[in-house]
Structure of Adenosine receptor A1:
Amino acid sequence: MQSRIMTEGWFIVKKASLIGLKTEFYSCLMGACVVLILTQSSILALLAIAVDRYLRVKIPTSYRSVVTARRAAMAITGCWVLSFIIGMVPMFGWNNINNARESHNISNGEIIITCQFETVISMEYMVYFNFFVWVLPPLFLMLIVYLEVFNLIQKQLSKKVSSTSKDPQKYYGKELKIAKSLALILLLFALSWLPLHTLNCITLFCRTCEKPMIITYIAIFLSHGNSAMNPIVYAFRIEKFQTTFLYIWKKYFCCKTDGFLSLSKLSCFSVSACIRCPGRTKIQDMTNMIPLLIAKASSKQ
């Protein structure tokens, strides 16, 4: 039932944004909260992955014992639980219900409004709580973590070059690719989220300022597009994610196998081989296995 309500709210707020659909206040608010939950989970996931990369570089010898499948699953669960709490705060009172009642001269009962994000979500919540607490700090934390990762990589490269004559350029190229990927991810994060939150700050602190709708739409598109860009960046620039994505596809959408496939054999993956494979597994099982698969791929690095 809860899933149905959240799904209906999601489509209501999306359609309302385009055609000005009139709906009950809390139905619109639920849809807006779903958007907040999903976008916040993306931010926390980026932060969690940054910490994972730091641990991989900082403690390479003990990484497998520290970052276990169980701890990875707990981290993923924690990100979603925290995102749910943050996103659902407006449903528990921090919203624009009082403004809506005043504008419609209704003291109680249902309020039918033209569903828009800013109509139901308080800008104080978006700026002071969401942006200043749950967007800017993760951004600065990621910046600090990635700078430390670059520093550690540089030290490791120096040691590698000075301590061995065995193809240092190959090692340098691999580490440089990872460093560039991290920089690209951080840049995309900033470019995707800062414009929208900057507009929210303008809305809150400059009530008389006009915001061109085209700029607002571009900012919204960038913020939501970040979630679509991240898998592409990780899949094409970080080998362990690419390997894990192919593994998930081959195991759950292509061929049925017994136990875990050898990750080293995934380079032989092809669409034609998948078509010839007679067996398939249940797609529903994939969701519960993703944390374990990612952890397993990480342990192979």
Notes: Residues 239-301 form one domain. The first helix runs from residue 2 to 19.
